[in-house]
Write a structure and sequence with these properties.
Blueprint: H1 2-14, H2 18-25, H3 41-45, H4 50-74, H5 78-96, H6 109-119, H7 121-138, H8 141-158, H9 165-178, H10 180-188
Helix pairs in contact: 1-4, 1-5, 2-4, 4-5, 4-6, 5-6, 5-9, 6-7, 6-8, 7-8, 8-9
Length: 198
């Protein structure tokens, strides 16, 4: 029962559509009606507000971090490790498939960054370093995000968090699937760069 509660906790946290709420509150309209149609920071950036995009990125990260930490505190010990994994999965699923928005959300990259830090700071650090490095070099958000999720899954066993590899690998598969159109554009050399048009 604990793992299901942890997953629910993660889902409810992850399903908060901060990108949509912030753009509506700022009078920028419904972010789902522009660019890629997603509620994540990359699409929020297309409103022209770097501040809103940064706030969305931070809050999407926090909504992945918070339930994982909470699960570890509510269910300590070995059961806590399992609960944290379920909370992690729930948070990413909540962001990608929020019930409040007809199960149409974002692609989970920032939320998975928070999840990674929650599961283990070395995992989160690997995630952040790869994400920022690839983004800085290529300026392609989707490529940076997909590289980072692979890095997190690979980092888990390397830094002594092998128990979290299955959930991080599953999340990576999900995020790659959600980026399938981006992958197609990348292969054609048509994927837009950060700051460019959708």
């Amino acid at each position: 029962m604990d793992v299901y509660l942890a997953a629910l906790l993660g889902y409810l946290s992850g399903s908060i559509p901060f990108g949509l709420l912030l753009t509506l509150a700022a009078g920028k309209g419904d972010v789902r009606k522009q660019g890629s149609g997603n509620i994540g920071a990359t699409n929020v950036l297309r409103t022209g507000s770097k501040g809103l995009a940064a706030a969305t990125l931070l809050l999407d990260l926090v909504k992945g971090l918070a339930p994982v930490i909470a699960a570890g505190m509510l269910w300590p010990g070995e059961s806590g490790d399992v609960a944290k994994a379920f909370a992690a999965a729930g948070a990413v699923l909540g962001h990608c498939f929020p019930v409040w928005l007809g199960f149409k959300g974002g692609k989970g990259v920032a939320t998975n960054a928070g999840v990674s830090f929650g599961l283990g700071w070395p995992i989160g650090l690997a995630y952040a370093l790869v994400w920022l490095s690839v983004l800085g070099i290529f300026r392609i958000s989707s490529l940076a995000g997909m590289s980072a999720v692979v890095a997190a899954a690979a980092a888990a066993p390397l830094f002594g968090y092998a128990d979290y590899f299955p959930v991080l690998a599953a999340i990576a598969v999900l995020i790659f699937w959600l980026h399938r159109e981006n992958i197609s554009r990348l292969m054609k050399g048509e994927e837009p760069k950060v700051g460019g048009k959708a």
